[in-house]
Amino acid sequence: MKKLLFATVALLAMTVASTAATITFTASEDGGPTTTAPTPNASATIGPISFGDFTFSMTGSTNGSGGVPPPFLLQGNTITVQQNDTGSHTLDLSVLGIGLTSPTGLTALLSGFDATGLSAGWVATISTDINGSIIDSATFTGPTSGGHDTAFGAFNLPAMFNASIDFHIVTNGVGAANLGGSLAVPGPVVGAGLPGLLGMLGFGGFKFLRRRKRDPQTA
Fold first, then answer.
1. For each of the chain's 219 residues, which pLDDT tens digit applies?
2. Count of domains forming the chain
3. 15 belongs to a structural domain
4. Is residue 74 within 8 Å of 62, Cβ to Cβ?
5. What is the side-by-side order of every strand in the sheet holding 161-170?
6. Burial of 21 (0-12, 13-18, 19+ CB in 10 A)
7. Full domain range(s) for residue 164
8. Is residue 113 part of a domain?
9. Residue 219 lies in a domain
């Protein structure tokens, strides 16, 4: 039933022509089998979906025609989760950018993570990875009405690669969360100087402003 739901909702919000880089969504509850919803587009939305003990929605964009603009490589925005019963569970969600071809070589990457409305007792760990290897992560513990974290590093990117933003949510009963993550290229690794620094600051500022617009109560 879950696979049928994903096959259906994966067709929602597909308004852009197919591109080289595409978005895929995955979900798994309590360490069980992973359900995958591939899409043919660089930007897509699924949900709300009833999945086990949860209801969730996800939006993802990667670079490419109709996708997220530079300097971003990947965004997983408005990841909304609600648990419908009183038990303790885990939920793993991922937004994957498949078949990225730029940039290549040694590249500065900036990961951004944020959470709002995380229920008391809930813990959300958000990670970014390249080709299945985690490069950065941040953990948020509820209750929180607003949170933001960034991490910076340099990575050697091959000619074609996959990137993902992963959400590991540990719950203790009925509750909700609104999560987001981004992966961007703020500037060159060597000789970045002020432009690279400004790029990093600009990325953080963009994330903060986006969260303020989405959650007016955030301080």
1. 333 333 323 333 333 333 489 999 999 999 999 999 999 999 999 999 999 999 999 999 998 767 888 889 999 988 999 998 899 999 999 999 999 998 999 999 999 999 999 999 999 999 999 999 999 999 999 998 888 999 999 899 999 999 999 999 999 999 999 999 999 998 654 433 333 333 443 444 334 334 433 443 333
2. 1
3. yes
4. yes
5. 35-38, 22-29, 90-100, 161-170, 123-130, 133-141
6. buried
7. 2-214
8. yes
9. no
What is the torsional sign of CA 168, 98, 207, 187?
positive
Q: Whole-angstrom Cα distance, residue 58 to residue 76? A: 7
Contact 63, 70 (CB under 8 A): yes
In a domain, 54, yes or no: yes
Reported pTM: 0.79
CB 56 within 8 A of CB 27: yes
